[in-house]
Specification:
By secondary structure, the chain is of the alpha/beta class. It contains 6 helices and 15 strands. Bound molecules: citrulline.
Length: 250
């Protein structure tokens, strides 16, 4: 069970972040509202939500997931793959150090937290445009010292591994086509191509947060009897962000 979430509000220059989405410019007011509702959803899941103020030097800073990987044993501060995002990690490290022992990924290694998919005590590390082999190797060593296993998996068609596949407990994975044959031991819920965005869901303490507006995925999931919380994500989607990206849970 998680007890805490760290989130960071989007700033007024949120639209200046990196994106490949081609869905138009996000509206700040709308993003701010969606972020508040996201925090409410986390509270409903029983979490104490630690809300950080925006830092205008880093328009992508609300995507806190990319800056750390938190386990029971420690917090591993990443080395974000895009240079414009490197400075986001200092504040996050400072906050998490109140709760966890800190370790760091070092250059030339790069890792974005969005590439790290944990399933029980195994960590899948996506090798993407943001996460390189050197970063994956450093992370694997740290994890193995803490008693976890890991393996790498190439990421081709999406920004991060978890953009295309997330674990939603009970042996269930929700995945886009690229990843649907990669995980043999699991029950795969395959999203339709026109609903690819909905492969990024967030399972928190017996609740499943899903993005609003993906009826086919919703139908597939509803057969599995989750406590579903739908969250509007339109503005974050425009900046390539999903439900997992907006928080660090521990
Ligand atoms: C970026 O390109 O870095 C941000 N605009 C989106 C990051 C999304 N984070 C995630 O998937 N973990």
């Amino acid at each position: 069970m998680y007890t805490h979430a760290i989130v960071k509000k989007p700033g007024i220059n949120f639209a200046k972040g990196i994106t490949t989405a081609n869905l138009g410019k996000p509206k700040y007011e709308k993003a701010a509202l969606q972020h508040r509702l996201y925090c409410e959803a986390l509270k409903k899941c029983g979490l104490k939500v630690i809300v950080l103020e925006p830092d205008l030097r880093h328009p992508d800073g609300c995507f806190v997931e990319d800056t750390a990987i938190i386990t029971e044993k420690s917090a591993i501060i990443t080395q974000p793959g895009d240079l414009s995002r490197r400075g986001e990690k200092e504040e996050i490290a400072e906050i998490i150090s109140n709760y966890k022992k800190i370790r760091c990924i070092k250059s030339p290694g790069t890792i974005d937290g969005g590439d790290i998919l944990r399933i029980n005590n195994h960590f899948y590390i996506g090798l993407s445009k943001r996460t390189n082999k050197a970063g994956a190797k450093q992370l694997a060593i740290i994890l193995s010292k803490d008693g976890y296993t890991s393996s790498t998996i190439p990421v081709k068609s999406v920004l991060h591994l978890k953009t295309g596949v997330t674990y939603i407990s009970n042996n269930n994975l929700i995945a886009i086509k690229e990843f649907s044959n990669r995980f043999k031991l699991f029950n795969i819920i395959k999203v339709d191509e026109d609903e690819n965005y909905s492969a990024n869901c967030l399972f928190v303490n017996n609740f499943l947060m899903v993005p609003k507006g993906f009826p086919k995925t919703k139908q597939k999931i509803s057969e599995l009897r989750y406590n579903i919380i739908e969250v509007e994500m339109s503005e974050f989607r425009k900046m390539d962000g999903g439900l997992t990206c907006l928080s660090l849970l521990f």
